[in-house]
Amino acid sequence: MRLTPGSGPVTGLDGVNLFDLDLYETGDPHPVWDMMRAEAPLHHQLLPDGREFWSVTRHDDVCRVLGDHREFTSERGTVVTHLGQDDVASGLLMTSTDPPRHTQVRRAIGSRLTGRAVASWEGRIRRAVVRFLEPALAGDPWDLAEQALRLPAIVTGPLLGIPERDWDELVQLTAMVTAPSDPHFRHGSEAATLAISHHELLAYVTDWVGRRRSAGGEDGSLLDHLMSVRAGDAPLTDEEIAYDGYSILLGANVTTPHTVAGTVLALIEHPEQFAKAQADPSLVPQLVEEGLRWTSPACNFMRYATGETRIGAGTVPAGGAVVAWIGSANRDDAHFPDPHRFDVTRTPNRHVAFGFGPHYCIGAPLARMTLRIFFEELLVRFASVDLAGEPRHLRSFFIAGMTHLPIVARERTTA
Question: Which residues are bridge partners to 316 per DSSP?
Fold first, then answer.
């Protein structure tokens, strides 16, 4: 998906098709979202197979849909790839569970992922990031998007308790879940790709839990922590552990690499912003926030209306699927002046890249720290970064990212 909007013609509202994969792989959804925010803040789309959904594109409406579980439930499914069939993990998977059960599980799991808890991991993460960047310092073309897919495993694999021999397989499987139509990850049909990846990831966590129970003791990892979590008056069942472990693996591996690649591309396209951040390292946290807003890697989330609901100057019927477009909300000029300008000094920057409300990304502190360390090390080591080929965008309407971003970096000789 293009992150800097083009200037091509936009069809009218009658021509909007937000499930058109070409729009994200080779097209540009931003002018479409701009038009929808202005003319149709609640937009209804009927798919050829009879499925239908309502879209909200304004920042305030997206926050309302994601923030109010009484009006918009998560328990029938939260991702658009499941549109038309209720989530079989409802009530078991934390992301497909509403409060109060969701709150109980989230609080117990999240105790290991607070800002204070992850601060102790900074040294290990920095060493991992430095090793990750080393190949680029040779000055040869290096595909950042392809390599970045492995970055979360390199950084968080030891923290999750996953052995290195399994990293590549899990990276591939999580990519298959989020972009089942992309030729880079597809195995047969989209449905087959999803079925294979879901099954293999759940089987991996289930087997991992079985091995850990047999071994006894604790290794201090996050997945190990799941086995001791109590929600309410009882421990999680093995089925809940499998689903939540699956969710943690997915969250760890999906968004960070696309934020890295998309933000680096923005810095290449806006060299004055690269120079500004390099000259003032204190801007790195703001660079991270602007990178998250700009890339919005989790492009949307879905909820279902619990009753007939007025929103966005329209009405969603009871049971209607509502898609909240994160990528559009983060370019809403009612909240972000000059929203299509990449600005490392932007403040305030109240983006919703990590979601909003009860399901706000549980791994956000770890993701923010990883991104901060990544750009601190990149700006210290690289004098410049340039394209060495054309970017290739992910064929997905759920995850905004790239499969290829060939770059060439010039090493910085003085700090």
Answer: 309
Determine how many CB atoms are found less than 10 A away from the CB of residue 376.
Answer: 18
Structure tokens at 180: 């089942």
Q: How many residues can be counted in the chain?
A: 415
- Sequence-distant (≥ 6) Cβ neighbours of residue 273 within 8 angstroms: 266, 267, 287, 342, 343, 344
Phi, psi for 309 (deg, rounded to 5): -135, 130
- b/e burial code for range 299-329 (CB count within 10 A of at least 16 → b): bbbbbbbbeebebbeeebeeebbbbbbbbbb
Interstrand relation of 321-325 and 382-387 (parallel, antiparallel or unpaired): unpaired
Examine the pLDDT at 379 and tell me if it is beyond 70. yes
Of all residues in the chain, what percent carry a pLDDT higher than 70? 97
CA-to-CA distance for 255 and 178, rounded, in angstroms? 10
- Give the bridge partners for 325, in sequence order: 300
Secondary structure element (H or E) that encloses residue 364, with its range? helix 364-381
Between strands 321-325 and 402-404, the pairing is unpaired
Please tell me the CATH superfamily of domain 13-411, with its number: Cytochrome P450 (1.10.630.10)
User: Across the strands, what pairs with 107?
Assistant: none
Tokens of residue 291, six digits: 């990178």
pLDDT, one tens digit per residue, over 158-201 is: 888 888 999 999 999 999 988 899 998 999 998 899 999 989 99
Domain ranges of the chain: 13-411
Question: Residue 57: is its pLDDT beyond 60?
Answer: yes
- Three-class HEC string of 258-299: HHHHHHHHHHHHCHHHHHHHHHCHHHHHHHHHHHHHHHCCEC
| pLDDT at residue number 376 | 98
